[in-house]
């Protein structure tokens, strides 16, 4: 493709502005300063650099799965200098948006996408997208308190001063922990719910989102979703 189109795809500048960069001698191809505006380049083979920094087009993907570790922030940057989820991703993925944040100490499944419509549908409460979490508390959750969570508990005022309530869709008990399914995703929702019934969370891990499971993806690693997984996500929010 023409060099100015390539630079535009890489997010360097518009085609017209890319022509200006070439005229200024700031673009090299395979180590040679580019002089002509009509140069064709191969995006897979040619080493294209602007001001000495190699540029590549973004990877053609729309959904990414990441296993978020505890202690990193769901944010593009952090004023306190803490590690963010984007620090784990290569540059070509860092323009993608995460789907449903996890708080600082929560870990597990975090999806990213560059599809704005899909992002909206997967996070808006009206689509009731299920997310499941493994929850470890400092003492066992009683069945009576689990029923309170399913029935719904008040979790404090939101930013607009309106009293919020939340409820679990389902709770499954197991040895030493329980699994909780939600369909909204309010800020720190599970932690606030458990506080209201007198429990402190030791560990919280999201394991599924809209039918997509974390599986055995190692902590701090990422992968693209398969076409079958992407189909499951899109079908979960069909109008």
From TrEMBL:
InterPro entries (alphabetical): PsdUridine_s_RsuA/RluB/E/F_cat (IPR042092), PsdUridine_synth_cat_dom_sf (IPR020103), PsdUridine_synth_RsuA/RluA (IPR006145), PsdUridine_synth_RsuA/RluB/E/F (IPR000748), PsdUridine_synth_RsuA/RluB_CS (IPR018496), RsuA_PseudoU_synthase (IPR050343), S4_RNA-bd (IPR002942), S4_RNA-bd_sf (IPR036986)
Domain RNA-binding S4 residue range list: 1-63
Cross-referenced Pfam families: PseudoU_synth_2, S4
Keywords: Isomerase, RNA-binding
Molecular function terms, GO-annotated: RNA binding; rRNA pseudouridine synthase activity
EC number: 5.4.99.-
SMART domains: S4
Keyword Lipoprotein part of the UniProt annotation: no
Keyword RNA-binding: yes
GO biological process: enzyme-directed rRNA pseudouridine synthesis
Protein's name according to its UniProt entry: Pseudouridine synthase
């Amino acid at each position: 493709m023409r060099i100015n189109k390539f630079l535009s795809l890489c997010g360097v500048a518009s085609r017209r502005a890319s022509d200006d960069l070439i005229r200024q001698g700031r673009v090299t191809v395979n180590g040679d300063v580019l002089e002509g505006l009509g140069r064709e380049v191969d995006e897979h083979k040619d080493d294209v650099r602007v001001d000495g920094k190699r540029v590549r087009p973004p990877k053609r993907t729309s959904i990414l799965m990441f296993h978020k570790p505890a202690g990193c922030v769901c944010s593009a940057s952090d004023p306190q200098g803490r590690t963010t989820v984007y620090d784990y991703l290569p540059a070509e993925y860092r323009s993608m948006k995460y789907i449903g944040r996890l708080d600082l100490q929560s870990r597990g499944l975090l999806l990213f996408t560059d599809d704005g419509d899909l992002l909206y549908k997967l996070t808006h409460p009206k689509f009731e997208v299920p997310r499941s979490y493994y929850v470890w508390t400092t003492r066992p959750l009683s069945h009576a308190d689990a029923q309170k969570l399913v029935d719904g508990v008040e979790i404090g005022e939101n930013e607009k001063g309106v009293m919020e309530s939340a409820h679990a869709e389902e709770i499954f008990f197991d040895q030493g922990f329980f699994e909780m399914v939600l369909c909204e995703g309010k800020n720190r929702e599970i932690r606030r719910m458990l506080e209201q019934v007198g429990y402190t969370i030791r560990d919280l891990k999201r394991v599924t989102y809209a039918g997509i499971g974390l599986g055995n993806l190692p902590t701090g690693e990422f992968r693209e979703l398969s076409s079958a997984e992407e189909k499951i996500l899109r079908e979960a929010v069909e109008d």
